[in-house]
Structures are given as structure tokens and as C-alpha cells.
Amino acid sequence: MSFSSKVKEELYCRTGTARHCQIAELAAILHFCGSLRVSKSGIFLKIRAENALIVRKCFTLLEKAFKMSTEAKVLQKGENGTYQLAVDDQELVRKVLQSTRYLDAGGELPADFLRSPVNRLVVRSTCCQRAFLRGAFLCAGSMSDPEKGYHLEIVCGQEPQALQVQELLAGFGIEAHIVMRKKYRVVYVKEGAGIADFLNLTEAHRALLDFENSRVFRDVRNTVNRRVNCETANIAKTVNAAAKQVEDILFLKEKYGFEKLPANLRQMAQVRLENPDAPLKELGACLDPPVGKSGVNHRLRKLCELADNIRS
Fold first, then answer.
1. Which residues contact 71 (CB under 8 A, 6 or more apart)?
2. Which domain holds residue 272?
3. Could you tell me if 13 and 116 lie in one domain?
4. 155-196 pLDDT tens trace
């Protein structure tokens, strides 16, 4: 099971105790997975999703918020299957649409209700905003495995939907961005801290613990890798520098002669040839009298400059 599926399973089990929070989450499900059919006989509500958890969560919210039960039927399509919840009870449909503010002041259904963001009155409270985001992720969200990377996204059909989700996330200090993907607007979060905050505010606490464990492990692993890479680079740099120094000293010995070198440089050249792999600190200890790293580096640089001048 993917990490995203585990998060959704946990969110399915989280339902607000207050009725207004239940309505806010129900509004999110209607907004992302709902459809309405208006005919002379009334308004008919359908929830259709590939994930059975969404339909079951909608059923639970209808029971808790409206004290009414309804029936769900499963329509199989290919191997995956499509789950559908149909609500035909006109009294229930009216109550649901009125509570979620999909009906206007005159009790009519606006023509562009699916293109418009959810009414602000539904998500005016912080707890309702949490519930709405929980429902939005359950319907249209996904999250990558934290061991592989940090990426959370909610796919929206219309730009107003995406802007509302982005605004709600910003209210909790989570920086989200919007990108076009084919005909959809995708609200995404790439920061590990922002994803952790999202899991916390939607009450996916078990997933948050797993996420933080993976995050700590990944950060430690990256830190170790960076240090190893840095040390490897330093070793390679030291080895290359030592090889160049030995090459220049051998060139001086053949083309210039050690006897022409000043005493300090002659001693330095001999010590380097005797210890081709030694670091500067060890080379300095072999000199008489001993010299520090900066002094050794200065003498070796003088030898290399002299060899370059002779070559040119």
C-alpha cells in the first residue's frame, strides 16, 4: 500500500464531532466528486469516485450531519471499479445543498456552482477549514513516499477551486503553488515542513509520525552523504596536489638541480619525495626545525612556481 493510500485510510477514520465541521467536509466531497442532475421531478445528487473510502465517508457524513441514511451502490468499470452514491430523497438533497450553501438565497441552484469556490461561510472557522482540506485531499489529493521525496498535491478541476485550496493552506502557514497539468489545476506543496503541517492539521497523526521518522532518516542520510562526498573531494584534491608537487620536484631535480635550491626549499623537496602521500602537517613535522602547515604550503608553492617558470 502506498503512503498516500495510508494517509487517506487514516483521514477516512477522522470525522469532526461538530456538525458544521461535518458539513464543511461534506462540501469538499460534493465539490470534488459530486454531480447534480436537475429535472422536473427534482434535484438528484451523485457522488462518484474510484476510491470506495470517499463514498463511504460521504455516507457517514450524511448519517451524522442529517441523521438520515441512504443507500450506496457499486458500479464496476473494468478492473478498477467506480463507486457511486446516489441520493434521490428530495428532502435530504435540499437539506444537504442548503447546509453546504450550494443553493442561493432564493433556494435555487446557480448555473456555475461547480466552477465557483465553496461558500466562505462554510469554511469561516479554523476547524471547518481543517475538515474541508481533509475532504479535499481524500477526494483529489496524493502524496509521495517521504523516503523518495516530498510532494503533496490536490488536483482541482477549475482555477477558483485551486485558488481557494491555496488560500486555505496559506492560512495555516503552508506555502502552496499552482501549476497547470493538462486541463487541471494542481495545488502542490514541496516542502517537508509544509507537508508535516498538513498532516497535522488534517489529523493524520499516524501518517505524520511515519512521515517525520522518514524525514529524519532521510535528512541524516543526506547529511552523511554530503560529508562523505566532501571528505572524498578533499582527499582527491589533496592526492592530486601531492602528485603535482612530486612531479614538479622531480622536474626541478632533473632540469635545475637541488644544489641550486635554497636550503629550506631543498629540504622541503627531499621530504616531499620521501613522503609522497603525507599531508602537510606530517610533512612539517619531518622538517628540521618543524614547520606548520602554512609554512609547508608556502615552500611547496615556491617549488611549483619555480618549476612552472623553468618550463615556460
1. 86
2. 232-311
3. yes
4. 998 888 999 999 999 999 999 999 999 889 999 999 989 999
